[in-house]
Amino acid sequence: MAESTKRQNIAGGKAPVATPNALVALESAMSGAIGGKVRLQTTIPAHPTLEGTLYTICPLTHLVALFTAPPNTTHHLVSFPSITAITILSPPPSVPAPPPHLSTTVLNARAAAALQRAHEKASKVNRNVSKEAQEIFDAISRMLPTRWDGKDIVVMDQVVVKGPGYRSEDCRAGKEAASALTRVKKVLENERKKLAQREPKGPKPVIPAVPAIPAFSGGPRKGG
Length: 224
Hints:
The protein is an alpha+beta fold. Helix content is 29%, strand content 23%. The chain is elongated.
């Protein structure tokens, strides 16, 4: 009967422990209380009762690590054979679900794709052309594959829009790309019309001239 009492499951609240034969059961039971608040009854004369958070247990050395709450935080190492009873005062906090597994292959592929997109975006900006030229390039690239070749715009690797004019008469293509040339010219003409419509209309405001200020002679005035 006494041996049965010593083997009580710790989940029941209070579990007396006295013999080395119960060490394995104690380790198994206490492992579920790690992180919770417990009270230990011990055979240690200086600390017959210890209360605090169960930090960890070591099955190799048969030691329990316990620390008390602030302001007087103290860490205690208690051997299993010296524990006569343990009471769980509060269960350990719920453990969050582990994060989902992330494949390094997938992550590397995403990083490479993002880097490729960044390079492609940067290659579409030409700092050596005018703002109008860049706007024309952006408009064509929204509809057709476009890239820069110096200051020239290359469309579908078939049509070259020569800079710095970027007009329909500045388009060049081989005979086999006649249909592509016609299409690019049409897109270019439409974009130039849009640019012209966005320009401010009407005469520029005239700033009135500042009237001249008579020069001061600096001499003394005569008379009263």
